[in-house]
Write a structure and sequence with these properties.
CATH architecture of the largest domain: 3-Layer(aba) Sandwich
Shape: globular
Helix content: 25-40%
Amino acid sequence: MTAKLRVKKVYKIFGDRPKEALALLAEGESKESIFQTTSQTVGVQNASFEVDEGQIFVIMGLSGSGKSTMVRMLNGLIRPTSGEILIDGDDVASCSGSKLRDIRRNKIAMVFQHFALFPHRTILENAAYGLKVKGVPAAERNAKALTALEQVGLSSWAHSKPADLSGGMQQRVGLARGLATDPEVLLMDEPFGALDPLIRREMQDELLSLQATLKKTIIFITHDLSEALLLGDKIAIMKDGRIVQIGTAQEIVSNPADDYVAAFVADIDRGRVFTAETVSSEPSVMQLNTDTAGDAVRTMEDQNLNAVYVMDGEEIAGVVTYQQAATADRDSGPSDVHLSDVMQTDYPTTDMDTQLADLYGAASGGLPIAITDADNRLVGVVEPEAVFAQLSVPSETAESDEADASTAPENTELKLEDAR
């Protein structure tokens, strides 16, 4: 894929002696000690990452981690002390004021946590505001704003005022305003942080649904790890201005980079992070018209399987267990039993994207779960033990209560004002 945004070795020091702070960072001094000795605040240090076009890239961290400083540098509200921020090759960190205004007008839009709606303007006027700033004629901007409101399900509220809408609906207006300008990059700074949990989850689902169609490049800021894991194609976890790990949700939960990240993921519902694809394996199959119960027994013994799928050409005919095949083969003589006499035609199926939490019931039945594609072809299987193994708590997590409390982050649901 093509990288839409590249961040290269970005630092941000707040204060009038940034070179001194940078020198101390190079010597390995901590953010806290630098502040104590120089009164300079390290906002971001040595941050590098790439965001592919059409990707949701989540930057996650607690209060003071540097995530809000980072997103403000991405659109030029704050200039970095050093480093590059490239959007399609244009360096937001060092470009001229006129070039920065052009990037903001044509490539970037931002959605804020607190909606930032004008109370005296209609919903349509609020959604069209970014287009008005760009100088788009009234008829054109209203048409584009109405399209954006339709995308978020609020076209019927176009002539209402913000006070008439719930918090979740107001946030949808903020999202529509961002979409109306048709930005190439959408920056979302804790957009759902002020919503109650139920509405927040609805907005998360709404964003994923919109992204499936619009395929925008989105940088999403959050303090909530569960939200990050749900939304992010890639996730960057920040601490003390540093990015401590970048990866997919599965990579971060499976292989936390350090004790800090491990403490975050200890209580995560793994069933909502991993999918059938995560634990799938290549299917071993028998052919209905050529193989026998004896063939199935030997295959399962050789591959240490409890059951195997039976195919009629490219279609699934059924599944046969070791007990069924072995009993029939023993009672009727070697390799004499047709698979149709021992297989069962009722079997569990799923697709690659199904979360493991939704497979627990099927796995409890003991049969391998058939993974099928859009044409109902068998493309993999999920063995029950693979589901249970992935859902089980790792031993390191089980011992987390004994870990040094200094390495454990605060509650990921705790909402604090992000420090610089």
